[in-house]
Write a structure and sequence with these properties.
419 residues; Sacchrp_dh_NADP-bd; Dihydrodipicolinate Reductase, domain 2; single chain; Sacchrp_dh-like_C; Rossmann fold; globular; 15 helices; alpha/beta; NAD(P)-bd_dom_sf; 18 strands; 9-stranded mixed β-sheet
Length: 419
């Protein structure tokens, strides 16, 4: 029925591709493309004779618009799934526009080189205007709205779990549970243990840049920025237990504030163990999280990229990770004139994920929503030209697909609130 080009072959792409192959009536043909074609070939070989989906592979540099255009024109997909790095969002969007193909990704754009003078000038202007200093934001991709509308194409942004499913949860709450929403708290808990002293559950470079940045939240329509990891709460998570969680800046806050404008406060919390925080602070203090190149014995290296090479590959954590994740949203608001609270979330087991798709739950909880988002676009359940985040579409068929493909929702109509 559909031909899909998937760019990326890391842990999340591995999950998304395997799940696409479970719906071979929709995903009839897939091309896996990456800078390292051998990784694509190995994944394709592992799926041989296990799916009716026809799988091919290709080599592509996703930083090159010309290479991307050549590949897209040669393969002629109905959809490009960008499961590469967020640094490459804009080049892939440009290529999709040039070729007349729909686009989707799992995380919003951020630059690889944060010292680039041209980018820096725009970034510093945005910091003053918006009120937060994170390197990643939606403005770069929202700028493509008119281009995609005029081309009659859809670009779906941030269709992982958070962002992605969390926004669908918000749309679902607004549609079915509330007349007005007052507060949203997004809670991301990983209760897994991989046995390493220090490792990240997804791309180390992206992960460490995100969690070491200043935190921020939205209060009465304005951004409030705080020092990194300076607001801590404890919460007792279903199926996981009591965990420390910290307020972070996260991209879905930006779009939710636009699309659910009556919300008075939106916050995002993520759990971290003390060992992780101690290692991260030490690495930050000695400059290993820097994106500024340094000269070492005649070679220019970027410290955080060098660190990435030293840390365990997130895709290798699956067989040794035990425990569960719990990710969801807690709401307060009103229904029929009465105060109401509501919590919608998912619990995912690391070992069960590995048994099914040879992945830990962090990659699983991102890869499955990516597949389900693609399913929505290919079946035209989500079908409108322009650039959109997940909460701008009907949440019902998407959440039904998540229930079916491994991320079933749970609900609590009397949750403990976060103070």
């Amino acid at each position: 029925m559909s031909r899909v080009l998937i760019i990326g072959c890391g842990g999340v792409a591995n999950v998304a591709i395997r799940k696409c192959c479970q719906a071979s009536d929709i995903f009839t043909e897939i091309c896996i493309a990456s800078r390292t074609k051998s990784k694509c070939d190995a994944l394709a070989e592992s799926l041989k004779d296990k799916t009716a989906t026809k799988i091919t592979t290709a080599q592509v540099d996703a930083d090159s618009v010309d290479e991307l255009i050549s590949l897209i024109k040669a393969y002629q997909p109905e959809l490009v799934m960008n499961i590469a790095l967020p640094y490459q969002d804009l080049t892939i969007m440009d290529a999709c526009l040039a070729c007349g193909v729909n686009y989707m990704d799992t995380a919003n754009y951020e630059p690889e080189d944060t010292d680039d003078p041209k980018w820096r000038a725009i970034y510093e202007k945005r910091c003053k205007e918006a009120g937060f200093s994170a390197y990643f934001d939606y403005s770069w991709q929202w700028a493509y709205r008119e281009k995609f509308e005029k081309a009659g194409l859809t670009a779906l942004l941030g269709c992982g779990f958070d962002p992605g499913v969390t926004q669908a949860y918000c749309a679902y709450a607004k549609k079915h549970e509330f007349d007005t929403i007052d507060t949203i708290d997004i809670l991301d808990c990983n209760g897994g243990d991989h046995g390493y002293a220090f490792a990240t559950n997804f791309n180390p470079e992206v992960n460490l840049r995100e969690v070491s940045a200043p935190g921020s939240y939205i209060e009465n329509g304005k951004w409030v920025e705080i020092p990194a990891m300076s607001i801590k709460r404890e919460y007792n998570f279903d199926s996981v237990g009591e965990k420390d969680m910290y307020l972070l800046h996260h991209e879905e806050l930006e779009s939710l504030a636009v699309n659910i404008p009556e919300v008075k406060r939106i916050r995002f919390f993520m759990t971290f163990g003390q060992s992780y925080l101690t290692h991260m602070k030490c690495l930050e203090n000695v400059g290993m999280l820097s994106t500024t190149p340094v000269n070492f014995e005649g070679h220019e290296i970027v410290p955080i990229k060098f660190l990435k090479e030293l840390l365990p590959d997130p895709a290798s954590l699956g067989p040794r990770t035990h425990g569960k994740t719990n990710i969801g949203c807690i709401f307060t608001g009103k229904k029929d004139g009465k105060d109401k609270t509501y919590y919608i979330y998912n619990v995912c087991d690391h070992q069960e994920c590995y048994k099914e798709v040879e992945s830990q739950a962090i990659s699983f909880t991102t890869g499955v929503p990516a597949m389900c988002g693609a399913l929505m676009l290919l079946t035209k359940k989500w079908d409108k030209p322009g650039v959109y985040t997940v909460e701008e579409f009907d949440p019902d068929p998407f959440l039904d697909a998540l229930d079916k493909y491994g991320l079933p929702r749970r609900e609590n109509h009397n949750p403990v609130l976060v103070d």
